[in-house]
Amino acid sequence: MIDKIRSVNNWSQTIFLSAFFGLALALPLAEALKQISVIVIILLGIHLIFKKELKFEENLLTYSAVGLVLSSLMSAFFAFNTTEALKACIDIFRIIMIFLIIKNIPLNLNQLVIFNKILFFSMIVALLYGLYQFYFFPNPSPDEITYLKLHSIGHVNHSSIYLLLVFTIALTWLFYRDNRFPNISTSLLLFIIISSLAGIFITGSRATMFTSLLLMLLIFLLFFITKQYRNTKLLVILAILTIIPLIVLFSSEYSLERLLLGFNMIHRDALMEASIRAWVEHNIFFGIGADNSHYINPQDYTESVFPIIPHAHNTYITYLLERGLFGLSLYVIFIFSVLIALSKQYAKTKDRLVTAALLIWLVNFLISSVNTTFHDENGLLMVLIWGLALNQQLTPDRRQS
C-alpha cells in the first residue's frame, strides 16, 4: 500500500502541498481560498483513488466515516427543507474526505512543521484583525454586545473553539518532548499560547474558557507524571500560564460572570429537552434533516425563551434530532474509532502530534456537550490534525526514527 501511495508523481504532490498549505492559511482568514483548497484536495484524492495510487484502509474507522456521510444524505430525504439538508451533507462530505485523504497521503516531518507554522501564523493574523474590529468598530447599537470573531469563522463561539484548538496544538508543541519532530521556536509558541488564551477570554465563551484551564491543568499533570516535558523550565512556565488565567478570571468581573453563567444551563436545557421531544415525535431513525432544527418551535414542547431551535447546543442531541438514531450511532462510532486509532498510534510513537490529536479529541468530546463542534472550520481543523497524526503509520522516515 505504501509503495502505491509513494508513486504519486511530482505534479500531484505539488498541487496537493499547495492546497494543503493554502488550507492551513485560509481556515480563519479567507473563505474563497479555503473552499478552493478543500476542493483541490478532494478532487486530487479522487483522481488518485481512480488511478489506484491512493487506497483507504478497510476498517471500522473508514466504514463509520463513510456511513456518517450516508446518514446525512439519507436524513435529507426526510427533511423539512431538502435543499438545506443537502447543503449540510456537502459540509460533512468534505470534512470526511479531507480526513481520509490526509490520513493516507504521505507527508514528511518538515512538511508537517511548515503546516503548523502556517496554522499559527494565520491564527495570529485573524486574531489581530478580529481585535482591530472588536475595539475600533464596536456594534453601533448600544443595546447590542460586540463580540470578538475571527474573520472567516464568524460566530463568537465558533471562533473561540478555533482559538482553543490552535491553543491546544501550540501547548503540545511547546511542552512535549519529542526527538522525532524538529522544534518550533519557543518564543513563537509562547506567543501563540498567550495570544490565543487571551482571545478565548475576550470572547467570553464559557465552554472554551473552562476547557482551556482544564487542558493546562491536565497537561501539567500528564507531563509531570510521564516526564515527557522538554525541560523543567518549560514546566515552570506551564505552571505560570495556568496560574495567570486563574488570577485574571477571578479578578475580572466580566470573565468570572461569563464562566459562572456557563453553569446556568436553564435555557440550553430547554432547547435540549425540546430537541429530544421533537425527535421522538418526527423521525426516530433518520431525523428531520441536517440543519433543519430551526423549523422546530421549542415552545411547542417545553417552556423556552427561544421561538426556534438554532441547534440544541449539544452535538449529540443535534445529531439525534437532525440525523436520527442512525446518524448519531455512526457519529459516536466514528469519533471513538478515531480515539482507538490515536491511542494505538500513541502507544507506538508517543510523539507530540499524536498527543495534540488526542487532546483535540478530548476538547471536541467535552465541548460537544454544550455546543456543536464537528462542522465547518473547526471540523476541518480537527480532522486535519487527526489525519496527520494517523498519517504517520504510512511515512517511512518516521518509522525509522
Automatic annotation (TrEMBL):
Subcellular location(s) per record: Membrane
Keywords recorded for this protein, A-Z: Membrane, Transmembrane, Transmembrane helix
Annotated Gene Ontology cellular component terms: membrane
Domain O-antigen ligase-related: 192-332
TM stretches of this protein: 7-26, 32-50, 60-79, 85-102, 114-136, 156-176, 183-202, 208-225, 234-252, 324-342, 354-374
Top-level lineage group: Bacteria
Predominant place of localization: membrane
UniProt cross-references to InterPro entries, sorted A to Z: O-antigen_ligase-rel_domated, WaaL-like
Membrane topology field: Multi-pass membrane protein
Pfam families in the cross-refs: Wzy_C
Protein name per its UniProtKB record: O-antigen ligase-related domain-containing protein
The species this protein was found in: Candidatus Thiomargarita nelsonii
